[in-house]
Amino acid sequence: MLQAVLDAARDAVIVVDARGAIEAWNASAETLHGYAGDELRGKPLQMLFAADDPAETLLADARAHGRSAARRWQVRRDGTRFATEVSIQFVPEQEGSPAHYVTVSRDQPDDPRFRLLVENARDYAIFMLDTTGHVASWNAGAERIKGYAASDILGQHFSKFYLDEEIRTGKCERELEIALAEGKFEEEGWRLRKDGTRFWANVVIAPLRDSRGTHIGFSKITRDLTERRAAELDRLSLVRAQEALRLRDEFLSVASHELRTPLVALQLQLESLDIQSGAFEPKLVAKIARARRNATRLADLITTLLDVSRIAEGRLTLSVRRVDLGELVRDVVDRLEESAAVAKNVVVVSGETRLFAICDPLRMGQVLSNLLSNAFKYAAGTPVEIHLERQGDIAVLLVEDRGPGIAENQLERIFDRFERAASMRNYPGMGLGLYVAREIVNAHGGSIRASNRGDGGTAIEIKLPIAKGLS
Amino acid sequence: MTSRVLIVDDDNEIRETIVEILTDEGYEAVGARDGYEALAQLRDPEDRWALVLLDLMMPNMDGRAFRAEQLLDPVIALIPVVIVSAMTDVATTAEELHVDAHMTKPVPLRDLIQLVRRYCAAPD
Fold it and tell me: Cβ A268–B107 below 8 Å, yes or no?
């Protein structure tokens, strides 16, 4: 009765004694392994497994845990291999009955779904090579990635996918050798499409064996990682650019601090000379004055660098109070009187004479001073107009010159760091004045923009919020 | 003799320049390169000090630490201190440290001399 039930089972059922010798089996076991009659009795279970696939590990596992299961290579009587799903149950000694194992093997036939899966995979080129590296199968992904139709490439050597210099150095053969010796070859590298363009590929080559274990060729799986690599390179170059910017800002900060200290000592000495200059002859007094002017220029440049580095590090601090912008304009114009005279500019101030806003007077003075210095530089010999007015809750400060103006496509960019509308050869300067001006105005919650006057020249307009109830 | 000024600054050139200029102006000026040297100078019982010109950023003992130590020592706590620093927030720091005044580097020399004159007896 029991035998009849076992024989009806589709799976091969084999009973093995404690030493691994076959005791009993069902009809499916005979069919699956190709044995008949009493051939199996007393034979080691290993006889039904591939030589490189020891059955003892499975038995030991079952002994330890009561049960074991695995995909294994098993062999038929004629020596051919086939894949099975094996599970083994350990039955311990009980009531005089000795311990034994029950093994159940199920054949894993080729599943046509897998073939469809491979043929239709589009993101992976999955194909086979024969033992000498000639293409033996082709899928949709291979056609898409490499650009060859199956009819173009079947039978061709796979070196077609490699760069010339790699073919010459024997890379293709080496890859097959490694795959065969180590069970797998994998790398990332450049490969060629049919049209000769390169793509960055991840390649895995593995040897294929038939049911007897004979080497029949290779499977090759290729992925196109060009886009991923490009994105990775983009990310790296962005990181490098950011690092370069950080280093530049750090250098700017250290350099400007280091430059300033000796300059402070130099300015003190020059001032001390200037104070005593009453006793000197006029020519010497003029030389001291010139030296002081240039030390001041140097100090201004360094101050700008320090400001830029503070802005870059987010350390621009304002000390705000109620300020009369009219008075601030007059102060700055007075202070720059000498520069205006040297550049032969006449500064004309119009509009409100008293207009209060909450701001940092030193910083806003610096903004206006930067704008006027630009006007003196680019529009020498022409009138420069400053106009102050109120528009609702906004104070508007307009600085206009009659210089060459700014190309339309530069109007936004001139406020960027190290940007300048004019060529470096004709006009000196670091291209930082407007950048610092914009950052200071922005920090006040205001805005700054440049435009070209209809009749030539540049207009820079600053808008600052007025604190209500203060004017 | 109360016209003695202590210039505390770690930069040799700046310190010696100020010492030299004040000496030229007839004051007795002495330099210290950090807070430790400054405290040692002020605590010398032979000396009587009119003013300390204090830099903030210095190695070993900075201006802040110096000021804290000074205020803990009743013998020297009352000597007037003026901060002379390149830091942007000198005003805030001056308030925090309860000093008499502050100046931002680069200091106009005339202002500096005027300040020293206010604190010191007229030079001999």
Answer: yes
